[in-house]
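Example S7 (structure tokens).
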């Protein structure tokens, strides 16, 4: 049996690695030979070590391909395209439609399965089912990727299958038989509409928990409390749990927020999350203003601008930089090269080294909890940076860590 994966974003690569690990005939296709070559030669250093190891093993097999004809005779297609959003928040399905047409052309002659593993507009699968040839079995298997996507895919909390007949669910379950038996993974079978909706409500709930932590942090700032003490105690309640209950500087236009934006007119919790997130960004910017006064002519070094989902505008740093520039500040950015995708839509300066970013800075603004920002030695900062203000949106340090700097942290 031959399996084909469409899309070499993180969802596609994780699915490819998961199935390649215990099956011989798996091909992953992307209509971009340059991207295929880049992934084959240099796996991203930020990916899990286990995922990079699998990709290194498969180099000699040439099963990552930019040639559609390599998919000929495939029995099961997994559509793992990364979501693309229009300006109004709606999903753009052009790439999926193109890949489905390719799959129809190169499918095997016997029964074939199309498994949709990408985020879908609500109601999409039913309309697609009406268009597909009747010999193609259509399944929705939502992807619930975490910070450790390969580990989550090989040992998920659950497997969800949206089908029109139970036989289709049984077939897809058989492909994951080893993981299901070894880890006792529950399988939830449901209709297409329910499987489409589940990722949206799941993302909403998870982001709501993150936003709640930020709302607590804002309240702590207002009344002189310490969120780094309040949140762990709150999370120790087994009904609440500590997972994701941590403060942040807010969220940018990542795939989660874009998915919520698409729902905000129909689902009140999604609308509330979008508003609370913007309020969190505004509140922390007010603290910067209150500390520095006018930003006109001042230089702010931003530490952390990871290209979320490969898009620099998806990082919350973009929102902060835009506002700082509007108020007359000069913005210098440092992000490690392995996660950097420079944005050209804003007039920011990208520094090659962290020391370069600090060289003329009046203030340092930390916006990502990356390891390289978690243990900054004060004596080196004093030599590298003329200003004496540090604004930490991620609460990476104890309030007493810095002695020579004014340290303003989220949640304090």
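Recovered sequence:
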């Amino acid at each position: 049996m031959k399996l084909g994966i469409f899309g070499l974003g993180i969802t596609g690569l994780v699915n490819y690695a998961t199935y390649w690990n215990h099956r011989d005939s798996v091909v992953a296709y992307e209509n971009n030979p340059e991207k295929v070559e880049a992934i084959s030669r240099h796996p991203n250093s930020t990916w899990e070590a286990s995922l990079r190891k699998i990709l290194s093993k498969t180099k000699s097999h040439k099963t990552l391909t930019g040639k559609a004809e390599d998919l000929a005779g495939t029995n099961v297609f997994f559509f793992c395209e990364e979501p693309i959003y229009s300006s109004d928040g709606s999903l753009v399905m052009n790439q999926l439609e193109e890949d489905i047409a390719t799959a129809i052309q190169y499918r095997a002659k016997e029964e074939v399965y199309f498994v949709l593993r990408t985020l879908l507009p609500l109601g999409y699968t039913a309309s697609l089912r009406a268009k597909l040839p009747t010999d193609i079995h259509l399944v929705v298997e939502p992807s619930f990727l975490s910070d450790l996507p390969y580990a989550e895919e090989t040992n998920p909390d659950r497997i969800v299958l949206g089908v029109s007949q139970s036989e289709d669910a049984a077939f897809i379950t058989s492909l994951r038989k080893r993981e299901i038996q070894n880890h006792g993974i529950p399988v939830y079978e449901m209709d297409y509409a329910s499987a489409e909706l589940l990722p949206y409500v799941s993302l909403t709930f998870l982001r709501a928990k993150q936003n709640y932590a930020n709302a607590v942090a804002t309240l702590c700032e207002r009344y002189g409390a310490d969120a780094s003490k309040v949140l762990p105690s709150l999370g120790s309640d087994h009904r609440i749990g500590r997972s994701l209950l941590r403060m942040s500087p807010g969220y940018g236009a990542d795939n989660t927020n874009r998915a919520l934006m698409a729902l905000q007119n129909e689902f009140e919790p999604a609308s509330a999350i979008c508003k609370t997130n913007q309020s969190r960004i505004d509140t922390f910017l007010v603290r910067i203003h209150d500390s520095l006064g006018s930003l006109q002519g001042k230089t702010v070094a931003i530490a952390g601008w990871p290209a979320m989902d490969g898009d620099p505008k998806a990082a919350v740093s973009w929102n902060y930089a835009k506002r700082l520039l509007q108020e007359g500040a000069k913005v210098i950015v440092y992000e490690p090269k392995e996660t950097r995708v420079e944005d050209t839509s804003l007039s920011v300066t990208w520094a090659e080294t962290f020391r370069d970013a600090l060289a003329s800075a009046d203030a340092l603004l930390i916006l990502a909890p990356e390891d390289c920002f978690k243990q900054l030695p004060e004596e080196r900062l004093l030599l590298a940076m003329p200003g004496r203000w540090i604004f930490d949106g991620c609460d990476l340090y104890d309030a007493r860590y810095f002695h020579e700097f004014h340290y303003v942290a989220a949640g304090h």
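Notes on this example. The radius of gyration is 23 Å.
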